[in-house]
Amino acid sequence: MRPRRRPATYALLALLALAAAGFTALGVWQLERLQWKRALIARVEARLQAAPQPPPGPAQWPTVNAERDEYRRVVLSGRYLPVPDTLTQAVTDFGAGHWVLSALRDADGRVVLVNRGFVPAGTRPAPPAAGAVQVRGLLRMSEPGGGFLRANRPAEGRWYSRDVAAIARARGLPDAAPFFVDAEAAPGDPPWPRAGLTVVRFRNQHLQYALTWFALAALALWGLWRVLSEARRLRHHAADADA
Question: I need a labelling partner for 150 at 20 to 30 A (CA). Which of 7, 90, 96, 175 fits?
Answer without folding.
Answer: 175
